[in-house]
Amino acid sequence: MKKTILLSLFFLLSVCAQVQAKSYYIRISTNTSDWSNITADNVNSFIVDYDAATGSLSTIINAYLASDSVWIAKGTYKISGTIALKSGMIIRGSFAGTESVISARLKSDLDANGLIEPWEFTNTTEITSENSTPTFGAMNFPAAVTYALVDGITIKGVNITSTNSQIVKIFDTATGSIFKNSVVKDCNISGTIALNGAVYANNGTIQNCLIQSNSSTGTGTTATFGGGINATSVATSTAAPKVIGCVIRGNKTTNTAGTTNKSKGGGIFVQSISAALSCKVINCVIYNNEAMTQGGGLYVNEAYGEVVNCTVAKNYSVSTNGGIYLNTGGGLLNNIISWGNISGTNVANDIHTQTSNSNQNNLAYGVSSGTWGGLTSTKLLTSGATADNSTDGTGTLAPKFLNPTIAAGVPTDGTTTTAMTTANFQLTSSSPCINYADNAKLTALNITIDLLGNPRVVQTTADLGAYELPESLTTSISESMFSINCFAKNNEIIINGLTLGENVMIYGVAGNLISSHKAASPTLSIASTRGVYLVRVANKVSKVIVQ
C-alpha cells in the first residue's frame, strides 16, 4: 500500500513538473546584450532569439502553453498569423532588455503633449504583419481562454483585407482577459460584410490604451460599427466588456459603397444586450474621430451601455451627429464633457438622443442640434444656443481645456496630425466643468482615479470628463517650503530622487496646472519653455526657472 502511494505521489509530481509555467524572454537576435541579466536554465526559463529577416513572432508565441509568461524586448517584430493567447498566458512588451521587474520599464512623453501616459514606454515593442495585406488579425483572446493578459505592446500598420476580422479580438467567453498599456495605431480593416472596429471585445477589459488612426472601411451593403473600438456584449458573453482610461483619436469608419446609415461610431461603438451585460466606457478621451453617418466620436446602441466621465471632443460626422449618438433606448451618459463636435457643414452637434431615452442621469456639457429627449438631469450644464462652441474652447461657457485641437475630424495633413498627437484635454483651473460631476455614479462603479491615475475626487465633488484637476497651488507658496531635488537644464525641468509611480505636478506661478506626470524612473525630465514654474511632489514644492 505504501509503495502504491509513493508511486502515485511520484507520478503527480512528474505531471506538475511537466505543466509548470515557463518564462520566455524574446529579443531581436542581433541585440545580444538584451536579457543578458537573465540566467536561463532552458527548462523553465528561456532566452529566445527572433530573426528580424525571417522570423515570425506569432509562430514563436503560439508554440507556448497556457500560463506561460512572455517578456519581449524592444524592437519591431513581424507576424505571419494571429497570436492566439491561452488561458493564464501573460505577454508583456516594451522592455529595454535589462529589467528584472515589470515596474522598471521606462516611460516618457513620446507624443510631446505634456503627459506621460500609461502606454508611453520609452523602449517600444512593435508588432506588424509580414505582408501589406494579410487576411488575419494580430491578437485573439479565444473563447476558451480564462484570464490572459497583454501589456505594453504596440500593434502598428496591420491592414486586413478579409471580412469580419479585427486587429485585436476578445471573444465572448474569454473571461477576465485584459488588453492594457498598449497601442493600436495606423491599422485598417476593409471588407464586404460587418466590420467591428480595430479592437473588438465581447468580454474582458481594454485598459489604459491608445487607439489611434485606425479605420474600418466597408465595401458592401452591411454596416461598419466602430473605427477604433467596438465593445459589444452578446447573449453568450460571460461578462460585459469594459473600456477604461483610453485615448481614442483619429479613427474613422466609412463605407465606400455609399450605403446610407451604415457607418456608426468613428471612435467607438458600444452595444449592450442586457442590464446584466452592460458595457462600460470610463475615463476615456475620444477626439478627432470621424464617421460617415452617425456618432463621429461615439455611438451607443441599445439601452444598457454606460459612458462615465469621458471627454468627447472635436469629432466629425459627414452626415449627422458628430459627437455622441444615443440610439433608441440607447445608453446612459454620466459626467460627460461633449464639446466642439460637428457634422455636415460645420453644424454644431455634440449629443443626439432619441425621444424614448427617459432614464438618463446625464451631466453633459455641449451644444446639440439633435433631440434632447430624456436628458432630464437638473445638472445639465447647457442644452443649446447658450453654450460656447468656440473653436479653441476658451470662451465663457467653453470647457477651457489645456491644449485642445482646433480642427474637427481626422487629421488631413502634417499640421493637424501634430495638433492631434500633442493635444491635452486636461481642464484648466478656470473651467466651469470643475466640481460639477455626480459623485454617486463614481461611487456606484467604484471609480476612484482618473485617466492618469490621479485621485478622482480632490475636493468634495469630482470634475466632468476624463481628467480630474489636481489640488491647485497659489502664488503664496514660499521657496522656503520643503525642497525637491529639481533644476532646469537645456529647456528641461529635471527632477531627481523620485519613487516609481509618484505623481509630479507642474504649475505656473499663478497656480495654474500646466502638466501632470507619473514617475517611471527615479529621474524625470520634462520639456519646458522659458518661464518660472512650481514643481510639486506630494506635499513638497520647489520653484524652477527655465532660462
Large-scale geometry = globular
What is the CATH level 1 assignment of the largest domain?
A: Mainly Beta
Overall number of strands: 48
Biggest sheet, in brief?
A: 11 strands, parallel
Please give the order of strands in the largest beta sheet.
Answer: 2-1-3-6-9-13-17-22-27-31-35
Number of helices: 4
Q: Quickly count the domains.
A: 2
Q: Fill in the CATH topology of the largest domain.
A: Pectate Lyase C-like
Q: Span between N and C termini? A: 84 Å
Helix content: under 10%
Average pLDDT, all residues: 82
The CATH architecture of the largest domain is 3 Solenoid
Q: How large a portion of the residues is in β-strands, by DSSP E?
A: 25-35%
Q: What ranges have pLDDT less than 50 throughout 5 or more consecutive residues?
A: 1-18, 357-363, 366-387, 473-482
Alpha-carbon Rg, integer: 24 Å
Structural class, please? Answer: mainly beta
Secondary-structure map with pairings?
Blueprint: H1 2-19, E1 23-28, E2 45-50, H2 57-62, E3 69-73, E4 75-79, E5 83-84, E6 90-95, E7 125-129, E8 139-141, E9 149-151, E10 154-156, E11 159-160, E12 168-170, E13 178-180, E14 183-185, E15 188-191, E16 199-201, E17 205-207, E18 210-212, E19 215-218, E20 224-225, E21 229-232, E22 242-244, E23 247-249, E24 252-255, E25 263-264, E26 268-271, E27 280-282, E28 285-287, E29 290-291, E30 298-301, E31 306-308, E32 311-313, E33 316-317, E34 324-326, E35 332-334, E36 337-339, E37 342-343, E38 347-348, E39 351-352, E40 401-403, H3 414-422, E41 424-427, H4 439-444, E42 486-489, E43 492-495, E44 503-508, E45 513-518, E46 524-527, E47 531-537, E48 540-546
Parallel strand pairs: 1-2, 1-3, 3-6, 4-7, 5-8, 6-9, 7-10, 8-12, 9-13, 10-14, 11-15, 12-16, 13-17, 14-18, 15-19, 16-21, 17-22, 18-23, 19-24, 20-25, 21-26, 22-27, 23-28, 24-29, 26-30, 27-31, 28-32, 29-33, 30-34, 31-35, 32-36, 33-37, 34-39
Antiparallel strand pairs: 37-38, 40-41, 42-43, 43-46, 44-45, 44-47, 47-48
